[in-house]
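Re: beginner question about structure tokens

> Can someone show what the tokenized structure looks like for a real chain? I only ever see the sequence side.

Sure, here's an example I had lying around. Input first:
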Amino acid sequence: MNRARYFAGGGIWICILACLIYLLISLAASERRSAINELTRFFSVPAKHVDLKLQVESMVCTYDPIFMRVERTRNRPEFVQVGKIERVISPQSNTRGIAVTSWARAEFFSNAPPLKNAHYLTRYETPRSIDFIVQTLLPEDARRQIAQLVGEAYAEHHQDLLIRLRPILEAGFQEAAVVIHESFLESIERHQQEFEELGARYQIELIQAKLIPLVNREIWPIVSQEFEPLLLEIGEEMWNRASVWRFGWAVAYDSLPLPRRDLVKREFASFLKQHAVPTMVSHMDKIISAQQAVLAKIARNEQVIQVLRDTLFQAAQDAELQRVVVMVLQDVFVNNDRLRRLINDFWLREDTQLLVRMTDEKLEPVLAQIGKIIFGDPTAKVTPEFARVLRANVLKKDHRWFLLEEVKGEAEGESFNQGFMIVTHGGETDANPFDYSLPPLEND
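And the corresponding structure tokens:
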């Protein structure tokens, strides 16, 4: 009985082994299932350990991955991990094995290609700037989808929302404008002394030292060149129309001891009305042309442009002016209890709350779709882009990685027999060798 049981068990195991052998042979012959070959190679080929020499002293951490670029297919990514940093060689290395160093030791896995003297590594860093986060979370395809959703929502709801929103905003802006205007005047008055001190300093440092000499040296000659001939022409025409006899008689009359002595004043007023003003009006086109010519020449004058630029830059860089402006802005917008109460009352108004609820009901489906595009479905899985940002900026992972590359040359066929492998500095890159194809989240 026992012997029959042993024979039955042995037969079952033999069948299982035969099936496994057949499966391994079938999968090895199929390109779509090449992972079995790699797994077999992983257990059969020993890992290789190589010292690394970084050309630029950089941050290195134990377990930083080493990738190799391969041909991309539907079932295989562009990058495959072929090794890792085994040890950081530095006296400053902490307990986590991270340090700024020029030396490290790498372990190349069995799936790495046979190392040659032509091989080298390039160290890359994952960017962590705000621009990187935005560009990662919002690639071109996501931006196009979001723009389409927003456009459709706007076309469907904007007219209704605008009709309800306009009177509420107009009333709120009018009330806020009154408070801001009054607060601004109060702040200016409160800081009157600081503005007077600034004005006195600018009178000396800017107006007297720079602007007045600029006017005398550059602007006044331009004005004289354009207006002098015109003023001479107008003055000569007025002189020809003026009556010397009438003015002389008026002066003589006013010098006599008579009750009324304003004949000169009346004569001058009559001259202005009958001759001076019509003469000026008749030359108005020439006056306007001369003004335009003056402004054009001043605007093209390099000395004027440079002095004005330096003056504005000096004023913008003035720490005292910045301090006073910041104090005024704080008084008006930050430390303004009246404005704060007004805004709170505005949001608590019944019509505002009604509009907020209506807007939320109309836009909630669109916002949910936008959230899925950026972050993924909370009931399924997050997007690879959000996973990358989450790991790099929240979990502090995937900051560094190395790429195995090869120089094409005379020694490209020689097996690696050098004392160390060179690591070049690649800096930050948008390339992403990490696989963020996460499995779906389990529902509670």
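Each token stands for a local structural state, so reading them left to right follows the chain. The radius of gyration is 42 Å.
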